[in-house]
Amino acid sequence: VFGDSVPAWLLRDGAAGFSRTDLVLVNGAIEACDGIVDGPQQRDRRGDLLPVPEGCVAWNTWYPEVIGRVPHVDAALLMVGLTGVVDAEVDGRWIGPCDSLGWYVDDIAARIDALRGRSVDVVFALPSTLGSRSTFMVPDDHRERMACVRSALSAMLAERNVPVVDLEPRLCPDGDC
């Protein structure tokens, strides 16, 4: 399982109830670390810059290290979170995900291609809309922003024939997440 805080917490909190013996879960997630390679500077809802946390490792270094720890990896679940939702400084100007998201989609596509290049089947967890209490970091228009992120990712995933687990119906069954 590769990704940031959400999959790290799911593995941490859910591992105790995991009883399958025909499957081994390997944690390739790092809290507060999307792992984007050479990503643009980002800012939160207040305009404060979001520094890359200490201990964060770029996916092109981290994923091979995780895969190298186990004898064989059949499949990888890739689950990323808020990186595409906040503003990013691209080519000297601040943009939101509905303006342009190529830098983000290209990075996710490169991850998929790299994993597949190691004969790993990839499943992508499409992020859900953020809940009404998620505005601690993201702008008030986070629902529209996430719709743009989900749309851009969905198009790329369909183009690459990547199986998708859509978290929206699971985490937002009543319209709020």
How does this model look, in words?
There is one protein chain. The strands form 2 sheets. The chain has a 5-stranded parallel β-sheet. Strands 4-3-6-7 form a 4-stranded antiparallel β-sheet, with no helix packed on it. It is 33% helix and 16% strand. It starts with a strand and ends in a 6-residue tail after the last helix. With 177 residues, it is of the alpha/beta class. The protein is globular and about 45 Å long. It is built from 5 helices and 9 strands; from the N terminus they run E-H-E-E-E-H-E-E-E-H-E-H-E-H. A hairpin with a 5-residue loop joins strand 3 and strand 4. The model has no long low-confidence stretch (mean pLDDT 91).
**Mean of all residue-level pLDDT scores:** 91
User: How many strands in all?
Assistant: 9
| Major sheet summary line | 5 strands, parallel
N-to-C order of helices and strands: EHEEEHEEEHEHEH
Helix content: 25-40%
Structural class: alpha/beta
Shape call: globular
N-to-C CA distance: 22 Å
Low-confidence stretches: none
Number of helices: 5
Spatial extent as radius of gyration: 16 Å
Sheet with the most strands: spatial strand order? 2-1-5-8-9
Give the DSSP E fraction (strand runs of 2 or more residues).
15-25%
Task: Give the arrangement of secondary structure elements.
Elements (H helix, E strand, L loop, with lengths): L1 E2 L1 H10 L13 E2 L12 E2 L5 E2 L8 H10 L6 E5 L7 E4 L2 E3 L6 H16 L3 E6 L15 H18 L4 E3 L1 H4 L6
Parallel strand pairs: 1-2, 1-5, 5-8, 8-9
Antiparallel strand pairs: 3-4, 3-6, 6-7
